[in-house]
Amino acid sequence: MFSTGLGPYYNPLAELIRTKKKDIKNIQIEPKKNYVLVIDEINRANISKVFGELITLLEEDKRIDAKNELRITLPNGEKEFSIPPNLFLIGTMNTADKSIALIDIALRRRFEFIGVFPDYSKLEESDGELLKHINKQIYSRKKSADYLIGHAYFMSGVETTKVIKNKIIPLLIEYFSGKTDIIEDIFKNSGWSIWYDLEKYEWEIQSGTGGNSF
Questions:
Q1: What pLDDT band is residue 168 in, cutting at 50, 70 and 90?
Q2: Cα separation of 130 and 93, whole Å?
Q3: Residues 175, 140: contact at Cβ < 8 Å?
Q4: What is the percent of the chain with per-residue pLDDT over 70, rounded to a whole number?
């Protein structure tokens, strides 16, 4: 308490400060929410334009409140810009796309690369077995999991025959430079009869049960 002539002014102020301190102790600090920024087909982007000076700030130890916190001035004049620790960036890419080779080494160092491979359990048993057979054949020829075909093709509700003709075969043609004999071999013992008709110059597709043809 203040006993001087200014006490009537200072004492209420001091009491207010003490009250506020008690309130602060009782406040529960809400945990920070996480935010996710997804950049689709990141390997097709112009990385230097997408990130610019921010590429350095992506590192964990350069973020706000981190050991080596770093702040920069953006080209638009904004000063003291930094990235918080609760912001996560996810970049997607097709590993079979040759443009993946163009990804800057600096970007590779700042991201974890996690492969997402076909999940056959998501499909009907017959489609799952067919896709598993196709992928085994692809891997035996390409010696790389980057070329495996994903299960999403068979989850659109379209007939399997149409998926094979309009999605799978065009992809295999690209993989194997249009060599029809290789594509025919891939489907051998798959439960499907698939061949290239040299008179019609189109693919003939028939299920092993004989129920579907295209």
A1: very high
A2: 25
A3: no
A4: 82
Report how far residue 45's alpha carbon sits from residue 47's, in angstroms, rounded to the nearest whole number: 6
Dist. CA 98–CA 100, nearest whole Å: 5
Give residue for tokens 């009869």.
193
Write out the two tokens for 6.
């200014």
Cα dist from 17 to 14, 22, 93, whole Å? 5, 9, 55
Q: What are phi and psi of 197, to 5 degrees?
A: -80, 115
CB distance 89 to 82 below 8 Å:
no
At 145, list the tokens: 């999991």
Residue 81 tokens read as 């810009």
pLDDT digits (tens, 9 = 90+) for 120-164: 898 899 889 999 999 999 999 988 888 888 898 898 888 989 989
Q: What is the average pLDDT across 68-74? A: 86
Distances (CA, A) of 163 to 42, 152, 166, 167, 193: 27, 11, 5, 5, 15
Collect all residues with Cβ–Cβ distance below 8 Å to 66 and sequence separation of at least 6.
Answer: 60, 85
Look up residue 63 and give its amino acid: R
The DSSP code for 70 is: -
